[in-house]
Amino acid sequence: MVSSATRVVQAYLDHLTVERALAANTLSSYRRDLVRYVDTLAGADLATVTPADVASYLAGLREGDERHPPLSAASAARAVSAVRGLHRFVVREGLAADDPARDITPPTPPRRLPKALDVTQVEALLGAPPTDSPLGLRDKALLEFLYGTGARISEAVGAALDDLDLAEGVALLRGKGGRVRLVPVGTFAIAAVEAYLVRARPSLAASGRGTPKVFLNARGGPLSRQSAWTILRRAAATAGVDAANLSPHTLRHSYATHLLDGGADVRVVQELLGHASVTTTQIYTLVTVDKLREVYATAHPRAR
């Protein structure tokens, strides 16, 4: 018998941390989802939960209540995945005989096209930071690195000096779930990063206590994801790029879309992006198909 739902939830989260090596952000979301789930059970034993209880919880996610706003399909799907994983863990540990969430299907999030900038917009964005100051050189290097490698912002700010081999034109990126991949770095990114490392980073590092991270803040410490996002938005404002087309992944989305537009194989792009499944990468093909459709509609005599 399960003596405490809260204790079992913690054991499950510990299992995910140690055995599955889930990213910290994912674990935080799961913890929040499962705390809400346990609250809805009002002290009930996890071994006595029924499929109706889980279905009721799912309905509550989409409808919201006095303490929680309605969740989107994507957030609800994540919450249901957390609950399904919890009950599988309970059965596997011998704490319950049946899995009440086995047949519960999470809502399917709508398939949204990633927001990508065109090449002209990207060039304007990358050319926006001034290069007459250490922080300007850093900003340009960061943006060029993001677009030149397809790195997530967290991967870029997490990169250490030893992860770069600019002479060989490659960088080691440490992605979700502890996965590591080696990616090529474009010549523009190499030039921008080298200029930053030689002309800017030493002066920034002199203000700090010493860190191996490539990208530093004004105090000499590691640059945060929030600061990197601020740099991107500031460059967009300078370049006149519409903020509606921006997200923390803007340059990563643009990187993938432009590769596919240029004829890259989707499996190669999957490896470059570090996607565990090619299905995740294939959503970018919808962007290129949309572009092809637009060209067809304007160019083919029988299209209209």
Could you explain the architecture of this structure?
This protein is mostly helical. Helix content is 57%, strand content 4%. It contains 13 helices and three strands; from the N terminus they run αααααααβββαααααα. Strands 1-2-3 form a three-stranded antiparallel β-sheet. α6 crosses α11. The longest helix has 22 residues. The termini are far apart. The model has no long low-confidence stretch (mean pLDDT 85).
Short summary of the structure?
The protein is mainly alpha-helical and 304 residues long. The chain has helices spanning 5-20, 24-41, 51-63, 73-92, 119-126, 134-149, 153-158, 187-199, 201-205, 225-239, 250-261, 266-273, 278-299, and strands at 164-165, 170-174, 180-184. Helices cover 57% and strands 4% of the residues.
